[in-house]
Amino acid sequence: MNLETLGQVLVEADVVVEPDSVALLVDALGTPHAEEVALRLPFFGPTVGGGDSVVGPIDLSLERGLAGGQSFEWHRSFRPGERVSVVVSVEDIIDKGTLHLATVLSEYRDVDGELIQRQRTVFVERKPSGEQVQDGAADRGDGAGEPAS
Amino acid sequence: MSELELTPATAPAITREAMRSFVDGVSDPNPVHTDPEFAARAGLPDVVVQASHTTAIALDALIAQFGADAILNLDVRLRGPVFPGDEVTVSPVSYGELDRGVELRNQRGDVVATGIVVMRGDPDE
Predict the structure, then answer these.
(1) Alpha-carbon distance values, B84 to B27, B34, B54, B68, B95 (Å)
(2) Residue B39 sits in which domain range?
(3) CA dihedral defined by A137, B98, B62, B70, rounded to 10 degrees?
(4) How far is residue A17's CA from residue A21's CA, in Å, rounded to a whole number?
(5) Which residue among A34, A42, A142, B117 has its CA within the 20 to 30 Å range from the CA of A74?
(6) How would you classify residue B25: left for phi > 0, otherwise alpha for psi between -120 and 50, otherwise beta?
(7) Contact B36, B46 (CB under 8 A)
(8) Whole-angstrom Cα distance, residue B20 to residue B108?
(9) Using a CB-CB distance cutoff of 8 angstroms, which residues of chain A are in contact with residue B44?
(10) Which domain holds residue A105?
(11) For A146, which of B68, B74, B81 is closest by C-beta distance?
């Protein structure tokens, strides 16, 4: 990971909550409340502006990286078809022994500037074996999760 | 706070088609969700469910039982991979003083994620 991206804004963009994308998530979940769930997920967040918009700048290896966690602060649901502004930034990025950890913050606001939600994703990346420092700090619970997305 | 009054809920088994639909919906280009060979190079036995898909399963159980407007915050820690065919059950759990916990387990009993929920009306709202 590129530790020098701490504090950097990676993406500033206006996007539309595309009904077609919502429909794909609804299909994926296949439950009676799937649409309500889909409209709370910032599906255009870290991937807005193209799949490389976050992964590229923070230099996250997809083969060694994973998503360690996600947190959401909801003020309201998205509305199908509405235009929202998105700002994605690196809130934290640290070296932790055999791992790098990055917290990517995404904020979503409506056309009036009102906050819709804040979402944070924690990415965990194992260092290549040659770069690892055996200080024992890494493997105490931050390294589970799912491959980075 | 008391433990979350959540009735354990099991999501439908996650199909490869559902996984594809989800990653298309979120425009996630990471091949680890769709390409078994790439997943193998990452040391995984199969493609894995996208992180937000796992979070969505937790959120679905919460919304089904409490309504979307009741849920203010959700903090999810991903503990392990979810694979095609997995059936994930969302259950309430307590973490000491943090009572509003949820736990996601697959059909083998493995914990794949844990979370803390803040509901409207909670003291720390």
Answers:
(1) 19, 10, 12, 27, 29
(2) 9-119
(3) -120
(4) 8
(5) A142
(6) alpha
(7) yes
(8) 23
(9) 147
(10) 3-140
(11) B81
Contact flag B78-A22 (C-beta cutoff 8 Å): no
Beta carbons of B48 and A147 less than 8 Å apart: yes
Q: Which of A49, A16, A37 is nearest to B27 (CA)?
A: A49
Q: What amino acid occupies position B98?
A: L
pLDDT tens digits in sequence order for chain A, 149 residues long: 888 888 899 889 898 998 999 999 999 999 999 999 999 986 555 454 445 667 777 777 777 888 889 999 999 999 999 999 999 999 999 998 899 999 999 999 999 999 999 999 899 888 887 665 444 333 333 444 666 65
pLDDT in tens, B31-77: 899 999 999 988 899 999 998 999 999 999 999 999 999 999 999 99
CA distance B112 to B43: 17
Q: Is A143 helix (H, G, I), strand (E, B) or coil?
A: coil
Give CA–CA dist B75/A121, Å, rounded: 10
d(CA A45, CA A47): 5
CATH number at residue B103: 3.10.129.10
Query: Which residues are within 8 A (CB) of B30 and not within 5 positions of it... i.e. 6 or more apart?
Result: A51, A62, A147, A148, A149, B23, B50
Does residue B58 fall inside a structural domain?
Answer: yes
Residues 6+ apart with CB under 8 A from A130: none
- Burial (CB count <10 Å: 0-12, 13-18, 19+), residue A95: middle
Q: Is residue B102 part of a domain?
A: yes
Asked whether the beta carbons of B50 and B26 are under 8 A apart, the reply is yes
Tally of domains within chain A: 1
